[in-house]
Amino acid sequence: MTQKTYKELRSARWFAPDDVRSFGHRSRVMQLGYGPEDWEGKPVIAIINTWSDIGTCHGHFKQRVEDVKRGVLQAGGFPLELPALSLSESLVKPTTMLYRNMLAMETEELLRSHPIDGAVLMGGCDKTTPGLVLGALSAGLPFIYMPAGPMLRGNVKGKVLGSGSDTWKYWDERRAGKINQAQWLEVEGGIARSHGHCMTMGTASTMTGIAEAIGLTLPGASSIPAVDSNHIRMATECGRRVVSMVWDDLTPAKMLSRASFENAITVAMAMGCSTNAIIHLVAMSRRAGEHCAVGLDDFDAASRRIPVIANIRPSGDTYLMEDFYYAGGMLAMMSVLKDHLKLEALTVTGKPLGENLVGAEVYNHDVIRPLDNPIYAEGALAVLRGNLAPDGCVIKPSACAPQYLNHTGPALVFDDYPAMKAAIDDENLDVTADHVMVLRNAGPQGGPGMPEWGMLPIPLKLVKQGVKDMVRISDARMSGTSYGACILHVAPEAYIGGPLALVKTGDLITVDVPGRRIHLEVSDEELAQRRAAWTPLPKRYERGYGWMAARHIQQADKGCDFDFLETSFGAPVGEPDI
Ligand code: FES
Ligand code: MG
């Protein structure tokens, strides 16, 4: 591999020339107390930090950024922290998904506009991983992803609690009057008790695992709990390693191929991944370039081949990410999947994936199962198509009651979330466990931002009868920690006139997961009449970011990226030449 010289670094264009502009750059960096010995001959490393006072999962990043800097300095680089949108999953309304692309734009332009040669991306909470990675892929500089690491297991009175999954479980118990207010408060205080992201196999663990499978993290990095001292050492190693990546010019374009993204799909399936993985991974692969692009059919094909072997909630019933780490973590899991992975795919180590897996071992075969003893024989996700979802929709069979995998029932339609919320606790609601609940106008444009409303609550009347699952269909997403027979991401969405907009309460809907089919039992003639009578809803935003997002966000099957951010849109942006 040929090494770059100092003069060839991007940052040298800011700092090296003997002209008045460079005088301005240097004198202002000196204003911060740095001197030529800090930058001369050294790569400048941006540390994009999604820390904020309200970034609940990244509380340790204020310290961790210092650990990364230590590594950059050890390797002879010049570290600069650049803060970016924190995107706290549990606090941002209407949904962090609306802002994923904003973080992507921010990341890309932070890297492009500053004297930066390489980057460490610090994220972990759900949308931060795809947001940061999307932007960095488009910026095209060498980068490494530093995952926040999962929280420790939750705990209440000696009982283990899992992020999200137990929230839903205890909330249903509270609605059914089985636990009181005091017990509920104890759960509230015990379910998130350390730094780090959700420790179930929700979107956060799925996406950091995917980042590792693509080759964007150090080997094993995604499984280390946030508060483990190994996490500190991993952060420091990120700083050291990215400096070498800059000298070696190991850019994403040189590193990534379709194989990198196929590996990510394989790993996602084996993890029992969050349904959100599809949207983000599709978007990331398209940003990496046409030759890397994967789509819904790649997920469905992989799901028929790859069993779920990570016994982590919500697909598994006991273990959490802390257990996964002790069982050997991501490297161990990938070593089990060896025969299904493209081991030649390059990673940030500069070596192929296969070399990173040498010596990886499973220490607990109940947590990371062998392929012949999976927790679910077919993969985590299935893609359905039919007259209700011509461009596809998604279900997570591993998290739903088996009787609903083949089901026909009458629709109960809600036009929006408030209408659903108002009806759901009405004990006179005309609903049975056979009904198919439909929520629409909750997609990328209609939500707006495709909120995680897809796990519609079971109507109170049915909860009291002991009903735990029923078929639910929406153009929304659902949290990776959710479960149930929820059909999501229906494309095209109702808000732009997709067939979901035409369903009426009482229509029969057939779901056939083995046949990968979803069908509205209404004739084409009748549907054409309904379409002619359909009127679009008013626009959600008249100004600002939401206005822009609504005009440019693509449908779920295309990854919800903005059209103008995709790699194939327009000529590439050049380097600033002033
Ligand atoms: Fe941040 Fe779940 S709230 S990962
Ligand atoms: Mg989530």
TrEMBL record:
GO molecular function list: dihydroxy-acid dehydratase activity
Enzyme class: lyase
Name of the protein this chain belongs to: L-arabinonate dehydratase
Family listed: Belongs to the IlvD/Edd family.
Residue spans crossing the bilayer: none
NCBIfam families linked: PRK06131.1, PRK13016.1, PRK13017.1
Source superkingdom: Bacteria
Protein keywords: Iron, Iron-sulfur, Lyase, Metal-binding
Organism per entry: Polaromonas jejuensis
Residue ranges of domain Dihydroxy-acid/6-phosphogluconate dehydratase N-terminal in the record: 42-356
Domain Dihydroxy-acid/6-phosphogluconate dehydratase C-terminal intervals: 366-560
Catalytic activity, EC: 4.2.1.9
Species classification: Bacteria, Pseudomonadati, Pseudomonadota, Betaproteobacteria, Burkholderiales
Gene it is expressed from: araD
